[in-house]
Structures are given as C-alpha cells and as structure tokens.
Fold each of these.
Amino acid sequence: MQLRLSTKGYILIGLPLIFELIFVSILIFTQAQLERAYAKEIHARAIADTINTGLATLLKSLGYLILDNVSREGALENQSQSYFHDLNKVRDRLLALEADNDTERKNIEEFADLVDRLLVEFESVRKAVGKDKNL
C-alpha cells in the first residue's frame, strides 16, 4: 500500500493530535471531578468543625453548670449562660450550612433539634438549681 507524502504527513500529525486531545479532555474531566470532591470535603469539614465546636461548647457549659451548682455561689452562672448562648449560635451556624444530600440534611436537623431540647432542659435545670440556692 503506497501512501502519498501528504497522507503520511496527516497521519504523523493527526494521530498524535487526536490522542493528545483525548488525553486533555480526560484531564479536564478528572480535574472537574477533583474540584467537586474538594468542595464536598471542605463542606464536610465545615460541618464537622461546627459540630465539634458545639460539642466542646456543650461540655464547657455543662461543666460550668455543675461547678455553679456545687459551689452554690452563683459566680459561674454567667459563664454557663454565655456558653449556652454560644451553643445556640453554633446551632444557627450549623443550620446555615447547606446539606449536600438528604442524609446530611437529616443529621443536621437532628443535631439542631437535640441542641434545642438540651437548651430547654438546661434552662429548667438552671431554674431548679436557682430555686434550690434560695432555700
């Protein structure tokens, strides 16, 4: 099979060019996938950081509530209340983060409901402890 010089030139230039275009297309596609994965990871880390902050705030507020109850002086009550308000801010921040899927959305809502219930319970405990101190 005899090929003309121009056909050989097209093959020598066209074939590598086609493969290069295919590889560049694959590279662009995988880069887009990687960027989406990074965005999901950053979002998941933001949610995890917010939940961890909420748990740390919860533990601090409980600690101050217990210390205030043990000391019965009322000096730590303001600190405990401050952490309770911070816990509410953490809840609001968590709800502000948009969930990527239904499971994540459900977990965020469950955590927010848990925080709401805890705040109500802590307020009732604080009031009960306050009445107990007056006795």
Note: The chain is about 90% helix and 0% strand.
Amino acid sequence: MKVGVCVARKLPNNHIKARRFAAGPSLRCFVVVSRYATTKKQLRYGPLCGALNGMSMDDHDIIKSLELELVNVATRKNKDRLGELLSDDFEEFGSSGKVYSKRDILNILPSSKSVIYELNDFRFINLSGDCILAKYKANTSGIGSYRTSIWVKNVNGWKMLHHQSTVRQSAI
C-alpha cells in the first residue's frame, strides 16, 4: 500500500470533506470522513482511509486505517497524536519480550529510528459492540511478525488498549 497526503477541509461538527487527488491509476486516495480527524495536523499525519463517493467506513476499515497511521513515521514522531491513539491503560507485549506502557511508548517512539512497515492480511474479530481484535502480518527490514491489537471505542473514538508482536518463523 502506498501512502501519500490528501487534501481535505474541516466542516461543522468535526466532519471532514475529502477530495481525491491524482496519484496514478492504481492508487485511490481519500481521508477520514468522521470525527476521528479533527485538525489539519491530524489530517496531515493521518492515514489514507475513509469514505469515497459518500460511502461510510465500517469499524474494521477505521481500525485498519488507525493501525496504518500508527506505523506512519510522522505519527510515530508526534507524541500528541500517539497519545490520542493509545488508551491510558495501553500495554504492549513487544517481540523482544519487553512489556511497554503508554508512557513508555510516548517516551521511546518519538526519538526512535525511523522504520518502514509493510502491513497485510488484516483480519478482525468483534469482541463486543465497542471492542475489536485486529490481527495482521507485518514486515520491517526483512523481519516478519504476527501482530494483534485490541481497540476499544469511547466518546473520543477508537483507542488501542493492547498490542502484541511475535516474530514469524521463516517458511520451511
């Protein structure tokens, strides 16, 4: 998936009107049309996701877009945006075996080395009306991993509550 920047403008009630831009025939670009991106800064750092031609996003599309946003270099350097995406009770079990809290992530990520992630094979399980488990594969620097995240919805939108990364074995 290619990532770029879309042009959008803010409307009343924190809704965003999306405009597509030309980026080649194989790339469809659009932004969130909802309350999730409420500032120009969030739009600039946000993922390419959302509604196209008036179609609304379902929760799985929103979660996928938020996962993609979290691996975006600009988002990872933006402590404020990271704070908005992670629940106060956030916990991560890293592939290294370390356990990280929200505070750990906010202290580590903005100053960490930039890494390019490739995410694919997304699957979702609805755990309840406001809780979704996201499962996908990630590749970075030739290392593959299985990833799971638990997302919960509150009045401020979707927040990541838990994340786990497990290194994949090479194919036999």
Note: Confidence is low (pLDDT under 50) at residues 1-56.
Amino acid sequence: MFAHHEQGNPEAVMANPTETLRLACEQLAQLTGREPESVSSFQRLDGGWRLTVEVVELARIPDTTSLLASYEVELDQEGSLTGYRRVRRYERGRADDRAR
C-alpha cells in the first residue's frame, strides 16, 4: 500500500522526518478524500509521531474565504496511521484568536 518506505525497517521511517510527513499526508488524503495543504506541527513521540495537518475542506472564491481544517494525525514507528481527528475548522483569511 505505501511502497515508498522500507517495510520492516521502522528506523528508516523514524530517522527521516520528510518521509514521515509524506506518509502522514498520503494516508490522511486516502481516508478523508481531501489533499493536505501543509503540516503545521510535528512531534516525535515514544513509538511514533503526532502531526497537525491543514486541509482545505471547502474551496471558495475568493480563496481567503475557503474553509480549512486542522487534523491531528498519529503514526506508529513504521509510519502507519493509527488515528486522526479534526481539531479545528476556520476560514483561511481569518486570524487565529488563540494566537493572541
């Protein structure tokens, strides 16, 4: 299914953050049917990774009014998605009130 990483070699995935990000985005896209736009956070955990991935849920014109969502994604040490959840929805052009 994800032939780009070395099966049976979790060290290869764990040591390569770029590959980990790619795997997370690829798997989330397959599950949600939407292409991830960016990764806004990335954290190594014991035995895996936790990422926050930004996804366009509803494209609008102008683009600043498009509806985006933040998904928290967890991967095991082999790069397989073990869970995800939407943690926030927002319009692209609006400032984040939580950042103040």
Note: The mean pLDDT is 86.
